[in-house]
Design a protein that fits this description.
The protein is of the alpha/beta class. The chain has helices at 2-15, 54-62, 109-125, 148-164, 178-181, 203-207, 224-237, 320-325; strands spanning 28-31, 44-48, 66-72, 75-77, 91-94, 101-104, 129-133, 168-172, 187-191, 212-216, 240-244, 253-255, 270-271, 281-284, 293-297, 309-311, 316-317, 330-332, 342-349, 352-359, 366-372, 380-384, 388-391, 397-405, 408-409, 413-417. It has three domains: 16-255, TIM Barrel (Alpha-Beta Barrel), CATH 3.20.20; 270-332, Wheat Germ Agglutinin (Isolectin 2), domain 1; 342-417, Sandwich (Immunoglobulin-like), CATH 2.60.40.
């Protein structure tokens, strides 16, 4: 019988067929709570098995995404729809900091039966694979006598059952057992290996050509310098790394491997300022001085992460989301060092050259400076009490143009009139 079980396992490991394939270049996005963002340019989505509707999974797959479904394989969660299937005799100690969650006895037949049902649900919903969480119970005070070997056998059980169903499966954390489990799993998902200097323990997956996904939460990794250093290390190690907020609700994430910019809905009208937008919207602009923006919904809920930004009004906000919820566009991803700014924008409208400027301070007195290029032999100054000007000129000339007020000079632009 032992020979038969080993032979069967060999067949499963060597002949499993998957609908999709992963590589060491596969990028990932992880969101387990909140309204799922479906426009992130990652190759792989890791989403909650129970909370993600089948229709959403199908939409992601139609866009070419690999969909991995998360569930806890080592704990009971009292809010899950199958919570009633867990009997009291297989429930252990509660998890610290996770209300309503308790360890389970992974050696019980009942626990394994529930996990098989969850794998079946993943197949039914169309998931490409699964991410079973809490598979390192032997390291914790579970209330049960779970040994190192018990955990190895249980994790192999999960891997075998997933492969029998054509599901990819990832090893979540469990760094100390990687060298024994890497042949059974398709990828690794780790939390904070950079923060705790443990990334080297994931090397067996990288050497096997299997992707390693890593989530970091440390606030220092969200700063420009901290993030740059983090990504440099991640790329050297071959680890796909994304910085998330701990809620994993999609309100904050920053990937070392792709850029994310929220899509602007095309049905929103163009605007020059907030007054032209509907209630609950603001005029979103790429740059403070842009004459035209797009009416966009203000965020309703923002994370409390401290990632200060300088608003176009010269006020520092805790993060980008808070600035946008206040209807303010952003000048820079840092505090406001000098709250006074003037932005000059030049554009052509029909046969006219138009100038439009705005500032972070209240003033109606501007001076328009113009200097001929390239001689700069003289500077012309024109007092103005407006923030825009359109000119129709016929003579060929090239000028430097800038706007000045209260000791502040705008950006200097070069225009050519033909």
């Amino acid at each position: 019988m032992r020979f038969l079980s080993i032979f069967t396992l060999f067949l499963i490991l060597t002949s499993a067929s998957y609908a999709v394939e992963l590589s060491s270049n596969t990028t990932f996005y992880w969101q387990l709570t909140g309204n799922l963002k479906t426009d992130v340019p990652a190759d792989l989505y890791d989403v909650d098995l129970f909370d993600t509707p089948k229709e959403i999974i199908e939409q992601l797959k139609a866009r070419g995404k690999i969909v991995i479904c998360y569930f806890s394989a080592g704990t009971y969660e009292d809010w899950r729809p199958d919570a009633a299937n867990f009997t009291e005799d297989i429930l252990g100690n509660p998890l610290e900091e996770w209300e309503g969650e308790r360890w389970i006895n992974i050696n019980s037949a009942k626990a394994r039966e529930i996990m098989l049902s969850r794998l079946d649900l993943a197949v039914e919903k169309g998931c490409h694979g699964v991410e079973p969480d809490n598979v390192d119970a032997y390291l914790h005070n579970t209330g049960f006598n779970i040994t190192y070997q018990d955990q190895i056998e249980y994790n192999k059980f999960l891997a075998q059952a997933a492969k029998e169903r054509g599901l990819l499966i990832g090893l979540k954390n469990d760094l100390e057992q990687i060298h024994e489990l890497v042949p059974y799993f398709n990828f690794a998902l780790n939390e904070e290996c950079h923060q705790y200097n443990e990334c080297d323990k994931l090397t067996p997956f990288i050497e096997a050509g299997k992707p390693v996904f890593n989530a970091e939460y440390l606030p220092e990794f969200t700063t420009a310098l901290g993030f740059a250093k983090l990504c440099e290390r991640a790329k050297e190690e071959g680890i796909k790394t994304v910085v998330f907020n701990k809620e994993l609700d999609g309100t904050f994430f920053k990937s070392c491997d792709y850029s994310y910019h929220p899509k602007i809905h095309l049905h929103y009208p163009k605007c020059s300022d907030n007054s032209q937008c509907l209630p609950g919207e603001f005029c979103l602009k790429n740059n403070c001085g842009d004459p035209i923006g797009t009416c966009t919904k203000k965020p309703e809920v923002c994370t409390q992460l401290h990632l200060p930004v300088c608003g176009c009004n010269g006020i520092t906000y805790p993060n980008l989301c808070v600035a946008h919820s206040a209807g303010v566009n952003v000048l820079q991803e840092s505090t406001c060092s000098n709250p006074k700014h003037i932005w000059l924008n030049i554009y052509q409208e029909d046969s006219q050259i138009c100038l439009k400027w705005s500032s972070t301070f209240n003033t109606e007195n501007y001076i328009l400076y113009a200097a001929p290029f390239p001689e700069l032999t003289s500077i012309y100054s024109i007092p103005l009490n407006q923030n825009s000007l359109c000119l129709t000129l016929w003579n060929s000339a090239s000028f430097y143009i800038a706007v000045y007020s209260e000791g502040i000079l705008s950006n200097i632009e070069q225009i050519t009139l033909k």
